[in-house]
Amino acid sequence: VYLERYAVRRLPFARLGERDVAFFERLLPGRALTAQEEVKPFNVDWLKSVRGCSQLVLKPQTTAEVSQVLRYCYEKNLAVNPQGGNTGLVGGSVPVFDEIILSTALMNQVISFDKVSGILVCQAGCVLERLNEYVEEQGFIMPLDLGAKGSCHIGGNVATNAGGLRLLRYGSLRGTVLGLEVVLADGSVLDCLTSLRKDNTGYDLKQLFIGSEGTLGVITAVSILCPQKPKAVNVAFLGCQSFAKVLETFTTCRAMLGEILSAYEFMDEKCMELVERHLKLSSPVADSPFYVLIETSGSNSSHDEEKLNNFLEQAMASGLVTDGTVATDDKKIKRLWSLRERITEALTHEGYVYKYDISLPVGKLYDLVDDMRARLGQSAKNVVGYGHLGDGNLHLNITAESYSHSLLDAIEPFVYEWTARCSGSISAEHGLGFKKKQFIQYSKPRGAVVLMQQFKAMLDPKGILNPYKTLPSAPEWGLC
Amino acid sequence: VYLERYAVRRLPFARLGERDVAFFERLLPGRALTAQEEVKPFNVDWLKSVRGCSQLVLKPQTTAEVSQVLRYCYEKNLAVNPQGGNTGLVGGSVPVFDEIILSTALMNQVISFDKVSGILVCQAGCVLERLNEYVEEQGFIMPLDLGAKGSCHIGGNVATNAGGLRLLRYGSLRGTVLGLEVVLADGSVLDCLTSLRKDNTGYDLKQLFIGSEGTLGVITAVSILCPQKPKAVNVAFLGCQSFAKVLETFTTCRAMLGEILSAYEFMDEKCMELVERHLKLSSPVADSPFYVLIETSGSNSSHDEEKLNNFLEQAMASGLVTDGTVATDDKKIKRLWSLRERITEALTHEGYVYKYDISLPVGKLYDLVDDMRARLGQSAKNVVGYGHLGDGNLHLNITAESYSHSLLDAIEPFVYEWTARCSGSISAEHGLGFKKKQFIQYSKPRGAVVLMQQFKAMLDPKGILNPYKTLPSAPEWGLC
């Protein structure tokens, strides 16, 4: 449906031939998949909202293999879709037409871990949750965490500049990623895989690849700084009677919890209803219009509990919060987190999901949900809001029995115009991928987009890397 | 001396003519300086180690004026040296030949400050210390702090990706800078001045300008995330009997102080001797081979003091530390910090200073100082080491009565080869500027440097912006 809607046409790349397949089978014996059944799952995204028709999946194990694959594709003008855990939400991780899928699934080796500095170096295909387990054994944690952790690859996380649940405390990947190894479109290997906290020798090239969604190069290895594992973690799950109270609770807890605050998430009552109904989870607090999840991470459990209790007492006494529960043991902490983390999954049970991932000034965050609900009325099944309030990041989701042009027309460009009026971002953390790339102008001025296209043309002159993604197609924009 | 040593030749830019001067005097009435006395201080760096011979200093007040200046220079092929507070240590902030100096001194307005989010938007010429005072009044602090704070401009800080004293806690500018406005070489204005914590719409262009030392564009405005002002700050100043104990003290305090640790600095006994001699400061602890400064910042003074006291007890009991003092009041905290912050200043009293700013694996940090001291023997007056140990960042300084080729030959490339063998960085935070640019290959592979040169050629095709800086000159490298 997207192809039609945005009138996307296949660019004049070469078609995959028998000789090409033979080359790849020789290069990657047993790791060049062509059987339709094997290829199929790689063609469809996690949301089942976009589907390509690639006929070849390549599974290299080494950087040298990735380099040989790309050198060949570059010479033959074959388009390539780099794919990590395929958990992206904007159609960036699957082919649009017949692009060759380059999967990092077998590039899953840890290269090194330094216990003094906490610096991990690993291949791009390592699964985030496996890495977290690995460094946890040595007293550290990964600086990022997100709902898809069980499947997403660290290379994909970096390629999309994933945000997630720990950004409030440990900052973005732009600070924690110390080095990258990247294979460029022509197969040359760019080695920026250093493990230094500070390095001001020339331009920081790796930054350009962070968040470029596989359109400028294929990330093959990552060096990342892991924070120490906190000795004490507490989670509070609270009910609030209005969004204004959610906001006031945030400023109060930021002031009172200070350096131990590691997450401030919110969800509305509709979200709770859906996780209860579809996932059989039960709410630990009395029904409320809004719920807040607060996490603290610190080095001294009695200090942290004292801070948290002081805050909770004040929040209850002043009526900011009407009900709440606190967890200090791992099991209950996981249970509380799953209420928030599994909203995405619960939504998929409702039919088709229109997903929006918006950055806004925190005070206006929920106004967009209210306005959208009023606008759509009965034509949508659900309009829900949740997200990383501490980062000013709203996940706005709209569900309906099935996809319809008319509902989409009612949502877009309204949602983007609304966001642009508040100087927000139309994609806080999901990226633009295939589904959002035509809307970049709502968040970036024309001069910036033209410059991006110049970078793309410089680094990938034939445009073979993840085509049809991230940047708007050429006609409207003049370049390429 | 550097011109000679590195055989630097003036590139064929146009020479400044009377008509050019007349144009600038019309554009910036009273703010185009040509009198030799007025221009002179802008031609010499803070260390008095490099000197240009510019005949014109321009002081725009607005982005539009910067744009007009650059458009004119681009058309006429006139080279430009952007200059902030002129506190750089690698000769990046002054002209090499007759480049026009574009000073941000009059671009010193705060544009906005949001008390809820702590996001500051200001012009590039704001002095760091003034900004810190401004946000402190509203309960926040700047995310960076450095010895030069009284003169350095925030635009220069961003252009050089300054590190400094708070990086350990608040991370690098790559995470805290949320947006930039940049004027490109041809005078066009790139507006990436957003104030969002998360924005994944296309490539993050601003990152390329952070740390590019004015060679890719002139930063005219900055949007930056300020952390909350900590309610409690403590500083401990300690004496250690060996560098091994300095390291062990670090791992112990990182584990015990956790999230409240905001600085871990070290200096050797020679540094202490120099600040005592030249600045009449006195050491607060018994003479020791090494000194450590530890700062904590937190939201609860009794919790923080308890953590710090527990750590100090353990450090004293186990013999890691042999003497120490703690400060909780502002005045004493400032006094302790000045011992560390004013080492640079004390060194300048010793004659000529050869400065090196190295990133190394923390365990090897002081080996370089020992090796250098052994190598130079009597030919150097002092060989001292200090720096941001928590970030793996050593400041190695060598002094002599005056500059000599032979001493420099004994130091370089030895120091760079030593660093490269440990996969370190030859410039952790100072940048490459004019003095270090020929050594980039010790920290970056050739492919990366070639790519940097392509970026430079794309963004500044005539090479008018801060020429002779950051990237090695063309002949050896083939490109441009």
From TrEMBL, chains A, B:
FAD-binding PCMH-type domain span: 50-229
Cofactor: FAD
Main location, first listed in the record: mitochondrion
Zinc recorded as keyword: yes
Pfam families the record matches: FAD-oxidase_C, FAD_binding_4
GO annotation (BP), single: malate metabolic process
PROSITE patterns: FAD_PCMH
Keywords noted in UniProt: FAD, Flavoprotein, Metal-binding, Mitochondrion, Oxidoreductase, Transit peptide, Zinc
EC number(s) stated in the UniProt entry for this protein: 1.1.99.39
GO CC entries: mitochondrion
Cell compartments where the protein resides: Mitochondrion
Highest taxon of source: Eukaryota
Catalytic reactions on record: (R)-malate + A = oxaloacetate + AH2
EC category: oxidoreductase
GO molecular function: (R)-2-hydroxyglutarate dehydrogenase activity; FAD binding; metal ion binding
Family: Belongs to the FAD-binding oxidoreductase/transferase type 4 family.
Role: Catalyzes the oxidation of D-2-hydroxyglutarate (D-2-HG) to alpha-ketoglutarate. Also catalyzes the oxidation of other D-2-hydroxyacids, such as D-malate (D-MAL) and D-lactate (D-LAC). Exhibits high activities towards D-2-HG and D-MAL but a very weak activity towards D-LAC.
Protein's name according to its UniProt entry: D-2-hydroxyglutarate dehydrogenase, mitochondrial
Organism expressing this protein natively: Zosterops lateralis melanops
